[in-house]
Amino acid sequence: MAQRRICVVTGSRAEYGLLRWMLEGIKACADLELQIAVTGSHLSPEFGLTYRAIEQDGFHIDAKVEMLLSSDSSVGIAKSMGLGLIGFADAWAQLHPDVVVVLGDRYEILAAATAAMIARLPIAHIHGGESTEGAIDESVRHAVSKMAQLHFVAAEPYRRRVIQLGEQPDRVFLVGGLGVDSILRLALLDRGELQRSLNFALGAKNLLVTFHPATLDEEAVRAQLGELLIVLGELHETHLIFTLPNADTESHTISLMIEEFVAAHPHSSRAFKSLGQLRYLSCLKHCDGVVGNSSSGLTEAPSFHRGTINVGDRQRGRLKAASVIDCPANAAAIRDALQRLYSAEFVAGLEHTVSPYGEGGASERIVETLRTVSLSGILKKRFYDLQFD
What we know:
Elements: E1 4-10, H1 13-28, E2 32-39, H2 51-56, E3 63-65, H3 74-95, E4 99-103, H4 107-118, E5 123-126, H5 137-147, E6 150-153, H6 156-164, E7 172-174, H7 179-185, H8 191-198, E8 205-210, H9 221-233, E9 238-243, H10 251-264, E10 269-272, H11 276-286, E11 289-292, H12 296-299, E12 307-311, E13 324-327, H13 331-341, H14 344-350, H15 362-372
Parallel strand pairs: 1-2, 1-4, 2-3, 4-5, 5-6, 6-7, 8-9, 8-11, 9-10, 11-12, 12-13
């Protein structure tokens, strides 16, 4: 029996960090042949040429699909998607995978999935059914789910939502969140190792800060981040580790504002284009909390029993642990949230945090399903109608 070719698409550093252990599982499986297609910011010097980290982890990259333009405008992003569609059309013609695996909700993934759909290739979508009401990712995620034949979801409410989209229940697999696997399997850096790796001394208090564009609030990006930076600039004895945003609309604006803040606070703050999964998770381990609007504050920080200040609407709709503090993107609300983050009552409750994204094992469950699921007639989808009373 020939090996089943599984091609996994990755377009960003954060996405690869989630996929890492699934890739290892596919690579080790005798019944499967791993293919990897990289695209997006992985191939950009501006974002650290992070495809190199994939190769350093021992993986072979089978296709590099250039699609990133040096523009973060809506026109530039749309043109990047067009280039991605062309590039993935060629990649699928060359690789002939049996299944294309994509994760999440970024525009690079929409281009890859669209080309796969036209090429009549089965698509497996990871982390569908989730909701981010403040970002264009919301529409992209649901669109990719409708193109896909197999679905790997992180929680029961997300399983029900994918079925609500009309997907057959027996094609929707509840596996848990992929981010938990990295937390369990990586040997994280101790405090001294992390400081040496970052070339940055941790302080008495430390916060990990990530702020991405809320892509449906075009005019609000500068104002929202400005409010956050005002409050962070008021902190005493607190060191700040910033991770710069991915390639999205207005990402250049965010990067410039953060770099200007760090230049004005050189002893207490540092910004990184890409921390990589090991350093990022090690920062989560040693910092007091996460501040910003990244999904990591909701999906990974709870597993470390760390608090998260979730600023603005970008992540509205996602499942959240009790360790997540939602607050509007204004200085007064952010100050109150920081006071709560460090309050004795809140800190005492963190040890009882239960993550809604499971306790690990998602990677193994996905690999086993990819190995055993029947692909016979899978391309012809039948809409699943819910029964209403």
